[in-house]
Amino acid sequence: MDFRRINDLPPYVFAQIDQLKLQARRAGKDVIDMGFGNPDIPSPGLAVEKLIESARNPKNHRYSASRGIPKLRQAISSLYLRRFGVEIDPETEVVTTMGAKEGLSHLMWVLSGPGDSVLVPSPSYPIHIYAPVFAGADVRQVPLGPAANPDVFFDSLMEAWESTWPRPKVVVLSFPHNPTTICVDIDWMTKLVNFAREHDVILVHDFAYADIAFDGYSPPSILQVPGAKEVSVELYSLTKSFSMAGWRVAFTVGNTEVVQALTKLKSYLDYGTFQPIQIASIVTMNEAPDYPKLVNETYQSRRDALCDKLASIGWEVAKPKGTMFVWAPIPDAYRDMGSLEFAKYLVSEAEVATSPGIGFGPGGDGFVRFALIENEQRIGQAARNLRKALTRLS
Ligand SMILES: Cc1ncc(COP(=O)(O)O)c(C=O)c1O
Predict the structure, then answer these.
(1) 166 and 159 in contact (C-beta within 8 Å)?
(2) Judgement on whether residues 59 and 175 belong to the same structural domain of the protein
(3) Residue 200 is assigned to a structural domain of this protein
(4) Does ligand 1 have an atom closer than 6 angstroms to the CB of 252?
(5) Does residue 324 line the site of ligand 1, with CB under 6 A?
(6) pTM, rounded to two decimals
């Protein structure tokens, strides 16, 4: 049978690692899983209590508001003011989505279609590439570059824009960046916003790691740039910040026209997130505003543990300033294997699961990505296993 849109999708390489992991576990092996970025830190207790309480009220069992109930939109507006000093009108500049992934996918439906082109960094979180593909647009992947230098990337974006016809309508961004962990500052964002304002380009900033940043670095919201709302929308998610991955609560905020277009599309597609989840999210954002700091501390100690231990076995990896990942160049002695074979080798020989860089696009093949979702003791065990398996490390 032929399935439109699905047939052209490449095989999902992460599934191959997952399969190997499952086989090894079935064979009784204790695989340390740092593959999928699925947070293991519990959601705030307050969120769980409020969910239970509001689920008991039958009034909350009905269809809810597709764009989010008013107090939820008010709560994200207060969070933006408190965290980033950005004013968001809860009536016109916010729409709730079922996670940033769903938000981004439907956003691309309203922003792009056949005949349009969209610039997306490569490597990238896969939906950044496939959301415009599903919308029927042409995707031009712009290398983030081995230099991992935001200024070099900026120049590549400009070159890609110049050499693409029809001119790209949309640029997808996401900093701190998954998987490369590249971070940018507000000056970088300002340059891009100025460019977008001059050339009628819409910027879509996936801010999934807004609160996961280390060593005093504070990731900028694109909306902090003066004039950004003319050309930008941002996706903010409770998934990583509040460790609420399974709840599927995120927001698209910023440019009114874009937010309203997405609101309209969504009003045809869904009846809103289960209301008790929305109520619990309101209470969480309003009453547990410091939870992201606790979450962040955990990721920072795991980052330190992993990078320090990898260095001690002869695998030098720069410490990231943000995200819940470590983007590790494949050691020279194993580079020829490519990331998929190397990641498979790590599962079978070291009982450590990572994500092969190739799964994030062609620019990722020299790397594997560790997700910081195992505790420090397990990270220590992973390093011991890697030391034994990677005998060619100097
Ligand atoms: C860049 C990026 N965006 C979005 C998501 C998913 O976010 P959500 O759970 O809000 O859909 C992830 C999860 O790993 C991510 O890395």
Answers:
(1) no
(2) yes
(3) yes
(4) no
(5) no
(6) 0.97
Each residue of 367-389: pLDDT tens digit?
Answer: 999 999 999 999 999 999 999 99
Q: What's CA 180's distance to the chain center, in Å?
A: 11
Q: How far apart are alpha carbons 252 and 147 in whole angstroms?
A: 31
pLDDT number for residue 337? 96
Tell me how far the alpha carbon of residue 256 lies from the centroid of ligand 1, in angstroms. Answer: 23
What pLDDT digit, counting tens, does each position of 239-290 carry?
Answer: 999 999 999 999 999 999 999 999 999 999 999 999 999 999 999 999 999 9
Residue 101 CB–ligand 1 contact under 6 Å: yes
Residues 6+ positions from 179 with CB-CB distance below 8 Å: 123, 125, 325, 327, 355, 357, 360, 364, 367, 369
What's the gap in Å between 35 CA and the centre of ligand 1? 14
User: How many whole angstroms from 30 Cα to the centroid of ligand 1?
Assistant: 27
Ligand 1 neighbour 174 (Cβ under 6 A): yes
Taking CA atoms, 71 is separated from 28, 68, 279, in Å, by 48, 8, 8
Q: Is 125 in the pocket of ligand 1 (CB under 6 A)?
A: yes
What 3-state DSSP class applies to 373?
coil
Range of the domain at 33: 13-42+291-389
CA atoms within 13 A on the CB side of 88: 34
Counted domains in the chain: 2
Distance 249 CA to ligand 1 centre (A): 11
CATH code of the domain containing 29: 3.90.1150.10
Q: Please tell me what DSSP assigns to residue 176.
A: S
